[in-house]
Amino acid sequence: MDTHLEELRQSFRNGRTRSLEWRKKQLISLIQFIQDKENAIFEALFQDLGKHPVEIYRDEVGIVLKSANNALSCLHKWIAPKKKYVPLLFFPAKGEVLPEPYGLVLIISSWNFPLSLALDPLIGAISAGNTAVLKPSEYAPACSSLLAATLPLYLDDKAIKVVEGGADISEQLLQQKWDKIFFTGSPSVAKIVMSEAAKHLTPVTLELGGKCPAIFDYSSVHSNMKVAAKRIVGGKWGPCSGQACIGIDYLLVEDKFASELIESLKRVLKKFYGENSRNSTSIARIVNEKHVERISNMLNDPKVAGCIVHGGLIDKQKRFIEPTILLNPPIDANIMTEEIFGPVLPIITLDKIEESIEFINARPKPLAIYAFTEDETLKKRIISETSSGSVTFNDTMVQFVCDSLPFGGVGQSGFGSYHGKYSFDAFSHDKAVLQRSFFIELEPRYPPWNDFKLKF
Ligand code: NAD
Hints:
- One of its GO terms (cellular component) is cytoplasm.
- This is Aldehyde dehydrogenase.
- By secondary structure, the protein is an alpha/beta fold.
- Helix content is about 45%, strand content about 20%.
- A 7-stranded mixed sheet has the order 10-13-14-9-8-15-16, sandwiched between helices.
- Helix 14 links the parallel strand 13 (about 325) and strand 14.
- Helix 3 crosses helix 4, helix 3 runs antiparallel to helix 6 (about 140-155) and helix 10 (about 225-235) crosses helix 11.
């Protein structure tokens, strides 16, 4: 490992990754990798998570291609120094901000979108001119080994390396001195990452998770119920069967509308996944037995089991958990205190939908808040009175693909952001450059101090 890292540091020091040409060449090769290996990617993601090729294209392949193409076309603008206004006091002077690469960066990623969560940050690291080590998640082994075996055939091996392994390898990597660490994963591991980074004062971006609420304001959106129900089901069970950091974790609705909402969701579930969702190829599988066990334990809690109003079937052998809806599980049960990260949707009823603000604020800051409402007053209150990585009205998940917006968390859901230009920024230091001339000299700035200089 030491030899490999020294090679990467050397590549950075000798300026190998700095030119626009090098960055563009890597991005073009990354696109080529995706295109050449599309079938292998489909196979690996099916093996790891049982994802359908359409879902893979939408959530992984398409996302990476879009990011790489966007970076390719914007890179010349992103790397250009930005001229800045310099106050008269400095006259004559020129000021600019120059984005410079950090150096050697470490990217540790998660398993639920094993391709895009690894390659999307890498696109930022390459665009910004860094050398990089990518450590994909061991929980998606087929994708991890595909990346390790084939990515080096496309990218500059003297500047970018893929290291496979689990927590032990990750811990070894964290012992090293990095110029930036970009971590996607759980808040508990993020604490380890941050404390290791602190030893070298290494800056970190932490893309974490949490419990993302959705507010359903029936009174203002009932005329769009069919669309809203599709977007809720699509956002809860669509991407990776609920194993998504920005998937809806729980849903808040007024008590009197809960049963109508549940019936609408059931109708959409049937339409999307058929009478028996176990036979559907349109829903991903749970990543491994450990996670099936984790979600089963949440559901089998005697306080929770009686709250199941739809689904509940678990097939451990096939790593399948039926899309499941719970009505009013106790809020001190694990299912309401821990991130579910699976195909289970608790619905919590309130007397008034406005109470959802207090409910959300009583919990750690989520990565995303969703609100189905046309009530402008409620919208304003949600925006100004809650804190989260993002707020999306009347849809779910789509903020992830809107590259003009930053994607990232706040508080327990992380800090820093990426996507589009924000990915470039995440891997760049904005260097301030001030150029003065010898033309004018203000003597009062120098000692010896006297009353005249004090007045000046
Ligand atoms: P995790 O924290 O267990 O693992 C993430 C990465 O850290 C993996 O590569 C793993 O090998 C490594 N790791 C595990 N233990 C480690 C240790 N002790 N020291 C150093 N590295 C270690 O998370 P996960 O199970 O892969 O993902 C689930 C979590 O990630 C959820 O909380 C989810 O919300 C979050 N997530 C966030 C995003 C986002 O973009 N914000 C995306 C996906 C997942």
